[in-house]
Amino acid sequence: MNNDLLKIFPISIQRVIATRLQTNWHILQEIRLRLNQPIELIFDTHVEWITKITFTKNDSQYVLNQLSEFSLYRLQDELREGYITIAGGHRVGLAGEVNTLNGKVKSLKNVTFFNIRLAKAKINCAQTLLSHIYDKTYLNTLIIGAPQTGKTTLIRDMARMIATGIQHIPAKKVCIIDERSEIAAAKNGIPQHDVGRRTDVLDACPKAEGMMMAIRSLSPDVIIVDEIGSKKDVQALLEAAQAGVAIICTIHSKSLQQLKRRPNLKSVFDQKIFERFIILNAAKRGVVQSIYNQYENNLVTYTQQWVT
Can you state the angle between helices 231-242 and 207-217, rounded to 10 degrees? Predict the structure, then answer.
């Protein structure tokens, strides 16, 4: 069990969760807390409910105080985004009463719903994929998948292997732009996950700005970034590609065809920036469904490959 994670719960809930997870912690994906409801545990293979406990308003306030260290003011940006990243890289999604201003989210208050998504390093889960994204140099690669399909787990292991070197491929300089502190799970600037011996991390740094900072000052061979999508992200990708730096990043989508319909990404596809597209299976976590090159030719003869 992870003590950093357990301590955000009231003692009564800590004991029950710790007991329930003694043997299956390693396959836990999420802990869902909802006001006046039992606690939901989501595993790789099934869902369980802790019905002996109902999550109360007092429990909700306790969890929020632990997450914010009793200062909601310091979490205003996170509350506006709807999530908090805690030690270990675990992400806590938040829901409750939303305040808006001019049609945009201003703040989140009366938080009464929590989705705690566990971050776990799975060593060598990316090993079978590296040969598909390397051809004398690492290729610009976009990993496409729906939420909870293993994208972040995959790029974390890619960073580790690329920066450490494998077999005939020497170690390269890697920079991780870790806007949500999920890839490296840095605490006070120190990664809690193994991301490789030649990796530098820009923690809690906006993606677009981070890519430019890395190119200017860190001379990376490979930049790794999670969940791109905005116009600023795309512009930074284009500039990084022109600078001769390989980009490996993820994006939310169920398919390549769905992705190509996004206006923000038109220039990326027009210029064929990405040389590899890795599509993750939407129904099975950690399963590669297909790998395409920049001409959208499928490079694999199998339909599924377990990576995590």
Answer: 20
